[in-house]
Please model this.
Amino acid sequence: MFLSILDLTGRLHPLFVHLPIGILLIAVFFQIISWKKPALKYDRVLPVTVMLGCFSALFSCITGYLLSQTAEYDAETVGWHLWLGIATAVVSFCWYSLLKKNTSPGVLSVTSLIVLCLLMFTGHLGGTLTHGEGYLSLSGSSEDGASVNQRPARIPLKDAQQALAYKDVVEPIFSSTCYSCHGDKKQKGKLRLDLPAEILKGGKNGKIIEATAEESELLKRMLLPIDDKKHMPPKDKPQPTRAEIELIHWWLEAGASFDKKVFELSQSDKIKPVLKALEKAGTDTVVAVIVPETPVEAAPSQAIDSIKKRGIVLVPVAVGSNYLTANFVSTAGVKDEDLKLLTPIARQLISLKLGGAKIGDPALKYISGLKQLVRLQLENTAVTDEGLKQLATLSKLRDINLVGTAVTANGVMNLKPLTSLKNIFLYKSAVEYNQWPALKQALPGVKLDSGGYTVPILQSDTTRL
Model:
């Protein structure tokens, strides 16, 4: 009981730490004004203000010390933050003593400026502990000064297959999305993700890597709804893209090796183009789906529950939007009949990802009823030319991915009635090289992409509904 009270008191630190900052800043303002304009009398209010600031600073030091005992922060940074906080309280008390002794305004003003400097340095370290290293750097702002969750660009790999699976593929993802809370400066939940030994060790809730990717807490947290308090990274932090989550899934499923190269780990046909894309700049570029201007009612909750139980990931395409994207990336044993589950949400569904799923032409019968679809990803599935005929009803379709399928040029021609179509991805399809000119002539307004890429991924694809 006593320990829980101390723990609760420590957790109050982020709330009460703003009191001494605000109170002492007001006191500094009063002190400087009274020095410049002696006619303005602050003799009564200033000592009281400083004393309140002194006591609130002392209380903040106590709560801060208790919070630091959770061992979730870098010891060196916490140490400096704590001692500077104590110094702020001590100098504030000295300031109060000087005020009571009617010390000269010049000395009092210098003392107040010392307090101001201590507040700035202490607050800066507090911000570093709370928000991560470089929180106040200019790199976190846009050109117009607006704050953004900007991620550093990934350096392209020369040869993805010769790269180290962890060092060159996985670690950069952790670095840009996880280190601010689970790095060397801060360890929320007593978890560090910047060192292999610490990753294997896990945090206060246990191991984060298990025998399979689906059992691993590392991946499970990423796939939780973004509004879930257990979702990682938190929704106000930079999120991994769907491609990055697929890479983490692959790494975990392949054994979570820290020393092997990519080519030494098993690779499905689905993950190979994602790995290949790491050789190009801008792999993680995020593009938006064209969201219909006409609002739509929310999808039936019963239908959503049925879809979720099947393991299908549903995500709103934008905050506050009822339009959805469905992703079968982690759905085991997908069957053609599973697509029937999407029928009740046909009005809301505008993006569907089935890459690598064990489906064929029968599934396209159900997809043909999803009339709002804007993007359809069928890469590495068993769809054929005959099946594509059923998609002629998708009048709003803009992008379709047929990478690694048996679709030929004749099948692609079945998509000619789709006047909204803008992109067809045909890498490793059955379209012959000499048939490309005829296709381009038949589909003049459509970009035919022939290879070496991954389809752009939605930022919103990182969570479940």
Notes: The CA atoms of residues 311 and 331 lie 5 Å apart.
